[in-house]
């Protein structure tokens, strides 16, 4: 009788890969980025300020000026993903932004000298109440990777300075769908977590393990999900998915066709379905009404989120961190 194929795998963690001393522990990030210099500098400065030892960046759109700006800062490593970079690499790895992200992150993982490596994007910020090295040093020594729950940035006047407001998922707080409809009266029943972006979170992987593939939301060994993971319960990945209406509107077409809102076979009710209905019925005015109710940090929404313990407030202070780590940006990149 044929044995059923395994659905996941336990990947043992050798004791010599476990660093329990937070003063010796080194962690970093890896990202495939297509963004202006200002956004990259803010992302890098934020995570260096949090304690990262290396920010590993693959430029999906090569830009010599970005490399030149970061050249004096060895803690930021820039790789230009130009024709020379992709030469002799698998064609299938280049077919989409998602595949390029996974290919580059997995390549960075194999060469990493860190103890832990987080695969995150330029609009994502690790939110930790304590130095992240301390939490990683306390992690389960048998965990191959740690899951980080998502928080989504709300639209507000200036989220980059002072307190920045994020919302949490319904599942994290154990709410019912009916309670979610109390927070978002018109759309809570149709947007299961009340999020515009992903709801699965991200991961930080223990380095040095064999045959690892870092996906966007998963860590894979020889094609199988790894079963021995844990959660960083005090840490969130703050996602600035749609920090203002203009950003949401500008990226909507791409996200519906090729990005995070695109058709996915496993989805029963997708955000794209909701958006299609709104567009058909009310057009752009309906989209704006939807965005404002779901994502605009009005006093009413903040009160509702607070009442359900779904509001997370954490300072980003990105421009101050850029000045501290890198000094002044070139004038043409000083504005967001």
Report on the structure:
The longest helix is centred in the C-terminal third of the chain and has 25 residues, at 271-295. Helix content is 34%, strand content 21%. The protein contains 11 helices and 13 strands. It has a domain at 15-171 and 196-241 and 312-333: Spore Coat Polysaccharide Biosynthesis Protein SpsA, Chain A, CATH 3.90.550. Helix 1 (37-50) crosses helix 11. By secondary structure, the chain is α/β, with parallel strands linked by helices. 37% of the residues are buried. It has helices at residues 37-50, 64-70, 83-86, 97-111, 132-137, 170-173, 177-183, 245-257, 271-295, 299-307, 318-326, and strands spanning 27-33, 54-59, 76-80, 116-119, 124-127, 145-153, 163-167, 202-206, 212-214, 219-221, 224-225, 229-239, 311-315. Strands 1, 2, 3, 4, 5, 6, 7, 8, 12 and 13 form a 10-stranded mixed β-sheet that branches. Strands 9-10-11 form a 3-stranded antiparallel β-sheet. Strand 9 (212-214) and strand 10 form a beta hairpin. This is Glycosyl transferase family 2. Pfam families: Glyco_tranf_2_4.
Mean pLDDT: 92
Rounded Rg? 20 Å
Tell me which CATH architecture of the domain at 15-171 and 196-241 and 312-333 applies here: Alpha-Beta Complex
What CATH first level of the domain at 15-171 and 196-241 and 312-333 would be assigned? Alpha Beta
CA distance, first residue to last residue: 62 Å
Characterize the overall form: globular
- Strand percentage, roughly? 15-25%
Structural class: alpha/beta
Q: At the third CATH level, what is the topology name of the domain at 15-171 and 196-241 and 312-333?
A: Spore Coat Polysaccharide Biosynthesis Protein SpsA, Chain A
Helical stretch tally = 11
Q: What ranges have pLDDT less than 50 throughout 5 or more consecutive residues?
A: none
Protein name: Glycosyl transferase family 2
Organism: Pseudodonghicola xiamenensis
